[in-house]
Structure formats: C-alpha cells, structure tokens
Design goal:
single chain, mainly beta, four-stranded mixed β-sheet, two-stranded antiparallel sheet, 1 helix, 43% strand
C-alpha cells in the first residue's frame, strides 16, 4: 500500500515539522483502516521529502510495511 503525505518544506527540501505517527494514522483512517499511533513504527525520523517504509504493528507476528511518499 502506498500513502502520500503533502507537507510544506524549506527551500532545501527539509520539512517544517517532522512526520509523526499521528500523520500516518490519519492517512490510514482515510482509507478505512483503524490503527493507533503506538502501532506505527518508523525506521528513522522523517524530516525530508522522499519515500519511506513504515511498519504497522498489527500483532507480534503481523507487521506489514506500507510505503509513505512525503512530498511538497
């Protein structure tokens, strides 16, 4: 699954504010998928535009990854 998040950026491509788990929860909710903020796991802080893999921890054995595209 691919999620797209549009954010305002500085001239160098850095975001004004880092992407946080609540942003991903909102994107998933818009697609009818309900998860909590604690179920969203980032490999690293998302502070610039680009494509990232985000883990959604549904259970200890079921942890699918979604692609998050952050753009200006």
């Amino acid at each position: 699954m691919k999620l797209v998040l549009k954010r305002k950026t500085h001239d160098d491509g850095k975001l004004y504010a880092s992407v946080n788990p609540a942003d991903v929860v909102d994107l998933l909710a818009a697609k009818g998928i309900k998860v909590g903020k604690s179920q969203i796991i980032f490999d690293k802080a998302i502070k610039t535009t680009g494509t990232y893999q985000v883990t959604v921890k549904l259970s200890s054995k079921l942890q699918p990854q979604v692609t998050l595209q952050v753009s200006a």
